[in-house]
TrEMBL record, chains A, B:
This is Precorrin-3B C(17)-methyltransferase. Gene3D superfamilies: Cobalt-precorrin-4 Transmethylase, Domain 1, Methyltransferase, Cobalt-precorrin-4 Transmethylase, Domain 2. InterPro entries: 4pyrrol_Mease, 4pyrrol_Methylase_sf, 4pyrrole_Mease_sub1, 4pyrrole_Mease_sub2, Cbl_synth_CobJ/CibH_dom, Precorrin_MeTrfase. It comes from Candidatus Limivivens merdigallinarum. Its EC number is 2.1.1.131. The gene is cobJ. It is an enzyme of class 2 (transferase). One of its GO terms (molecular function) is precorrin-3B C17-methyltransferase activity. Pfam families: TP_methylase (PF00590). PANTHER family: COBALT-FACTOR III C(17)-METHYLTRANSFERASE-RELATED. Keywords: Cobalamin biosynthesis, Methyltransferase, S-adenosyl-L-methionine, Transferase. Pathway: Cofactor biosynthesis; adenosylcobalamin biosynthesis.
Length: 243, 243
């Protein structure tokens, strides 16, 4: 059986992997991934073959994995967070049509939204949206529309890819759009390096977030109208009525 | 130190817990939870004290946990999925204000959205929303508004609590609302008993979903305009442009 596991390794530290993910990596011959993620797991899976490709070479990475599996190797394709949230599982299933002899199994993990939420407290207890600010594959107009409608619907919002070298003002633009429907005082949070060395977080208002610089290792959380700051935690209640 | 871990145990099977969650349960004296979830973990943590409360007694369950921690015990409050997604971490942090001597640590897990997505393929690869159809604590009008605006924004949508004895027609109502903005042919998926005995899934159109009965152990996925059926998988592409 030619088999590929597409594995979400969680935020980064070994402790936050699921047992299922650990067992898949233990049972495979070859671990394929983006260089940074392979470096995160390498020490825990000695004796495996490691193959890496740079960022944005996702199609090449998938083909590499399928070609190894075709040779009869059991392959694990690793992704940070969850393989199914801005991860590789979709592309693997799309390209898998060309490799009918290879079975693809997706193994979920803790994504940055829930990993970061746990660091901040409980910002995503109730209905929420995930929106990526990367316009590499999505027109910015589509992202704008989602930010506006999600804010109008009073969702808590978690932003992935809030910044990059080319997109240094996107978070500011996103905050301005959200402030068309959300109060400037909405409780927000940012978490940097979730589950990795140098993990830090900050709770601030939407207005303050607008003028905050974040990097690509940061996940951003915007509360709904009920979200509160309780001590050092960002907490969204379970609903709008009280018991 | 009086300590409570609020632990997301993932979909249900031991294999899908994170190492961090397993270590928290191993290191605690007392495990508190809803009866069904305690039964899921009991066999793996022999020798612990187990305390349970019935469904909907969430406040009582939290107070029970804090009172045990006050006595000096290390307590784990367990939730299915992720503790921060329709889970107990928010209420624990709210009630924690009354117990300043007790430290609360939230440990994330695999939530039904990403656990179920992995079963279906890759429905949540791109921007998505989580919406609960339970109107126990949220006015139905608010839920309607979210369904409409999320559909208008072309989000993939994952529905939690799609049905209960009292709310048997809510999924039908939700589908009718979503069809105001989404095509009847939108690719959808349902997963029952994610990561538990009797796990099953089905891929169908939004129109077919409208006339499908689901139970409270089912999680529902509605694709965006780009979502496809590939073989037996539900796959949302990474964006709207192609490489």
């Amino acid at each position: 059986m030619n088999k590929i596991y597409v594995v979400g390794i969680g935020p980064g530290e070994y402790e936050q992997m699921t047992l299922r993910a650990i067992h898949a990596l233990e049972n495979c011959d070859t671990i394929v991934g983006y260089t940074v993620y392979v470096d995160l797991v390498k020490e825990h899976f000695a004796g495996k073959e490691f193959l890496t490709t740079p960022m944005r070479k996702e199609v090449d990475r998938c083909i590499l994995a399928f070609e190894e599996a075709k040779k009869g190797k059991t392959v694990a394709m690793i992704c940070s967070g969850d393989a199914g949230v801005y991860g590789m599982s979709g592309l693997m299933l799309e390209l898998g049509e060309n490799y009918p002899e290879v079975q693809v199994e997706v193994i979920p993990g803790v994504t940055a939204a829930t990993g970061g939420a746990a660091v901040l407290g409980a910002p995503l207890i109730h209905d929420f949206c995930l929106i990526s600010l990367s316009d590499l594959l999505t027109p910015w107009e589509k992202i704008e529309k989602r930010l506006l409608l999600a804010s109008e619907a009073d969702f808590a919002i978690c932003l992935y890819n809030p910044s990059s070298k080319k997109r240094h003002d996107y978070l500011k633009k996103a905050c301005d759009l959200m402030m068309q429907h959300k109060s400037q005082e909405t409780v927000c949070g940012i978490v940097k390096n979730i589950g990795r060395e140098g993990e830090t977080y900050q709770i601030l208002t939407l207005k303050e977030l607008r003028d905050t610089e974040v990097d690509m290792f940061t996940t951003v959380f915007i509360g709904n109208s009920q979200t509160q700051r309780i001590g050092n935690a960002m907490v969204t209640p379970r609903g709008y009525r009280h018991d």
